[in-house]
Amino acid sequence: MLTAAVEGLADEALLKRVCSSVGVVVGQVYGRYGKSYILTKLNGYNHSAQFRHWVVLLDLDNDAACAPEVLPQWLPVPSRLMRLRVAVRELEAWLLADRERIAQFLGVAVAAIPADPDSVADPKRLMVQIARASRRRAIREDMVPSIGSGQQVGPAYTSRMIEFIQSVENGWRPDVAAGHSDSLRRCISAISNLAEQEFDPR
Amino acid sequence: MQLPTGRALRFTSIQVENWRNFGKIEVPLQRRTFIVGPNASGKSNFLDLLRFLHDIVSVGRGFELAVQSRGGVSGLRSLFARRYSDIHISVNIGVDEHPSVWQYELRFNQDNLQRPVIRGEKVVLDGKTLLDRPNESDNSDPEQLTQTYLQQVNVNKDYREIAEFFYAVRYLHIVPQLVREPDRSVGRKDDPYGGDFLEQIARTPEKTQTSRLKRIEDALRVAVPQLEALELQRDPVKGTPHLRGKYQHWRPQGAWQTEEQFSDGTLRLLGLLWATLDGTGPLLLEEPELSLHPEVIRYIPQMFARIQRRSGRQIIATTHSTELLREGVGMNEVVLLEPSQEGTSARTAGELAEVRELLEGGINIADIVMPRTRPVQAEQLSFFADE
After folding, report:
1. CA spacing 20 to 30 A to A102: which of A92, A150, A165, B160?
2. What is the pLDDT of residue B1?
3. Min CA distance, B306 vs chain A (Å)?
4. Which residue of A has its CA nearest to B360?
5. In Å, how far is B295's CA from the nearest CA of chain A?
6. Residue B184: is its pLDDT beyond 70?
7. Average pLDDT over residues A75-103
8. Which residues from A are below 8 Å from B32, CB to CB?
9. Residue from the list A32, A34, A142 with its beta carbon closest to the beta carbon of B305
């Protein structure tokens, strides 16, 4: 069982899906108020990670060119049971990495999905752009922001992403996605590796 | 011109003068709209405007009763208005691509006997004026100015669509205790506070009722995971309807409870879900977040969006909840009420440059808008105990 902190509602769904794919149970999930909220709490989470298994999932966004650059700044001395994992650059990149299924879900051709999602500069924007070209009106209306909303995403974007992550039959497959995203592959192996670490109950 | 069909009409903008605490406001309304503001800034008065339009189209004394039940013209007129000013309401009704299919305008005041009288009533369809009062008929018989044309079936034929649209406006503010004790509101029909909520469910044709309760049961389980089943039952002796929920329990059969034992949050969420499925006209909600867990509240706007995509139905809700605005709510979907010396003003959040800048800077709309609704001296409340 591991304890976790994530940036948002869709991140929580994604982490749970990843963990269940490698047989790890997720206990309490903290955060869900964005990245800066987690960064201010990181020392506290790290303290707890002396005693129990912890995963913190963050987006790299455009804070640095690559994760190794920024991790020592965010958390100089991680506890033994702390795994701070970074998505390059946002969780959408990992979702796009299951090309067939995301194309099917969005109602677009597989060719519209990039082959190397880790290299996409702004995966969320790309996700919305692809949804804009969807054959399905429902996808367009839920995921694409209306003019004047000032938002990056549509009114039911989060709900749609969660639906995609959770659907067992037609949704996201972490193992397939890991084949197209190195950062996801390393995240999954870090979680499986953590699960094998000895638990040191106080 | 070909008028849009297939999508439900909605209020696209509203303009008001001298209504309760509003001096003069003009504000666009989206399909999903959240009204925010400090306590007593007029959020409920804003919703009441739209309820008023629903009330005036009731056949017979609709207009007169709608005014009288609100304390007459002097009760309705804004304190900021000059003494004899008219109350003026004007709405645009349409769809996204064509926001002004219909325009309806009503101007009224009172006569020497304090009876409400119409000073002007106007209906415009796609730019063409269909009605403009006072007309000759009103001039020859001023008594006619005690009724709107909208409420009269024999004259509203050409614009009955507006009358029907107004009539379909629905207001909901479930008070859990009234659902549990329906005796308190005996005889009320379509009580927005839930007095006849169970009767409303019971009146629904059985097939529709069963399928809706099934959907609600699934959705409710998100907030109340121990809920296993939900059904409506009639008391065999008194005939009164009761909702029963089956909860997981240490007994293998589970335990049945009726609405009397449901929690406030369960009843309010149940009422909210039922209302979204029942009817197609604009739905007005008073603080839908009440009694609900913050993590449940965050999903409500997403649920609204998906309901609206299917039905096109407009949902306008007042709120004090940061959580309700956190996931994907647009700056044009938030109406900000701000009290001032000249009455409360109403603007969409998107009209404020500061809001746009902060949103561009990546700040969540909830964290931008809610601080603006905070009372200036909220901290004074903490000093209450000491003189």
Report:
1. A150
2. 43
3. 7
4. A150
5. 9
6. no
7. 93
8. 155
9. A142
